[in-house]
Amino acid sequence: MKKYYHATPSKNLLSIIREGIKAGCDGVVYLAETREDALKFICIRCFEDIVIFEVKLPEDKVYETFDHSQQFFKCKAYGYAGNISEKAIQNIWKYPAISKDIE
To answer: What is the tens place of the pLDDT at every residue in 25-35?
Structure first.
C-alpha cells in the first residue's frame, strides 16, 4: 500500500467523506505523489477553495498517466481506474481561498 494525493474543489468534501472519490467521465481518479503536486493540478483550473485527500492504495492498482506535461508540472501524474472508497482516505487538508485584496 502506498499514499497518494487527490485535490478537488471544497464543494466535494462532504460527498467524498460519505461516498469516496468518484472516477471522472473517463473512469479514472487522478492522483499525485505529494500534496504539493496534487495542488499543482487543481490550482491551474482556478478553483479558490481546495481540499486534498491522502489515500492509501495498492501500488499495483495505480499507474502513471501521461495526460499532464511532466515538464510543465515538474512531477508525474497517476491514475486509479474506478472509484476510491471512503475507507481508503487517511487524511484531509483544506486550502482556503487566496485573498484578492493583496496590496
So the answer is: 999 999 999 99
Q: What is the pTM of this model?
A: 0.86
- CA atoms within a 13 Å half-sphere pointing along the CA-CB vector of 12: 19
Longest Cα–Cα distance of the chain, Å, equals 48
- Residue ranges covered by each domain of the chain: 2-95
DSSP state of 13: H
Q: Return the CATH fold of 2-95.
A: ADP-ribosylation fold (3.20.170)
Q: What is the pLDDT of residues 58-87, one digit of tens each?
A: 999 999 998 777 787 789 999 999 999 999
Q: How far is CA 62 from CA 18, 24, 36, 45, in A?
A: 22, 15, 19, 23
* Antiparallel, parallel or unpaired: β 2-9 and 62-65: unpaired
Averaged confidence pLDDT in the chain? 88
> d(Cα 93, Cα 42) in Å, to the nearest integer?
14
Q: C-alpha 59: how far from its chain's center?
A: 16
